[in-house]
Amino acid sequence: MNESLTITVLVGLSLGSFLNVCIYRIPRSLSIVTLRSFCPHCKCQLHWFELVPVASYILARGKCRTCSGTISASYPLVEISVGLLLVFYVYKLGISPEFTIVTAYSLVMFLVAMIDWKYLMIPNTVLAAGVILGVILRFWVAPWTLSGGFIAAAFAFTTVLSIRFFGNMFFKKETMGFGDVKLAALVGFFIGFQSFLVSLWTASIIAVIFGVSRQLFLKAPKETKLPFGSFLAFTSVVVMLFQNVINQHLGRWLILLQ
After folding, report:
1. Are residues 20 and 104 in the same domain?
2. How confident is the model at residue 76 (pLDDT cuts 50, 70, 90)?
3. CB-count exposure of residue 256 (10 Å: 0-12, 13-18, 19+)
4. Residues near 143 by beta carbon (within 8 Å), at least 6 away in sequence
């Protein structure tokens, strides 16, 4: 048990380290494969002992060994978060096809959430990788559900596209980026249209609360854009994990409304 836990944590930390690379490089159109790791300040290439997840950051006291530039604490936080997430998934799902699907989806959504939060963009490369992963995993686990996944993706895409269209027309400005529309299709493909609607509704509430709070307490301008993709990515993972419980409660509410 201890060995399994150790392996899970190490794999999670390593995946978190890889996500850090993607979060920094993809928005800058840099290779995540061929380019060696470097300091974001002085661009000096890092040695292997400077790339050990979490440990290297602690030993270097959050600074580059070459230029003493401060390294963001988000790096170890991302690594620790993914490590804990993987431990939770192993505990909840065990090593199973469901574990593989949930982990793959969560990593893609984690990447989407972090990039959108930092740069207010959702790169097509990340969404394309999510689609490829989704098709491969569905074909491997349950190929007969592929058509249903594409139908759910189309409905989700159309729903958010319509919201965007009418929102832009009503407010006479861009209320939602087209990246959010494409993200909706990916979410729908993975978790189904009904669960997508729950995610969309929850993400919208969180976005409104966050936007109002930012204006009240941080005096942010009303025109400040919100990383809606981050909220949708987060809520969709939660909904995916607790899909059965949510569906049961939805069924009860629908019966009460009849």
Report:
1. no
2. very high
3. exposed
4. none
